[in-house]
Amino acid sequence: MKFKFKALSLSVLSVFAVAAHANTVKVDGSSTVFPVTEAVAEDFQKANKQYKVTVGVSGTGGGFKKFCRGETDVSNASRPILKAEMDECAKNGVQYIELPVAYDALTVVVNPKNTWAKSMTVEELKKAWEPAAQGKIMRWNQINPSFPDAPLALFGAGSDSGTFDYFTEAIVGKAKSSRGDYTASEDDNILVQGVARNVNALGYFGFAYYAEHKDKLKGVAISYKGRPPVEPLEANVLNATYEPLSRPIFIYVNNKSMDRPEVRAFAEYYMKNGARLAKEVKYVPLPAKAYEYNLNALAKRQVGTKMGGENKVGLTIDQLMKMEAK
Amino acid sequence: MNTEKPSPPSARLDAAAIAELIRTGKRKELVFAILGVFCLAIAILTLTAAFLSLLLDGWSRIRPEFFVNFPSRRAAEAGILSAWVGSFMVLIVTMVAAVPLGVGAAIYLEEYGQKGGWIKDVIEINVTNLAGVPSIIYGLLALGLFVYYFKFGQSVLSAGLTLALLILPIVIVATREALRSVPVHIREAAYGVGATRWQMVSQHLVPYSAGGILTGIIIGLARAIGETAPVITIGALTFIAFLPPSPISTEPPFLNFDWLFSPFTVLPIQMFNWVSRPDSSFHASAAGAGLVLLAMCLAMNALAIYIRYQVRKKIKW
Question: Helix, strand or coil for residue B223?
Answer without folding.
Answer: helix
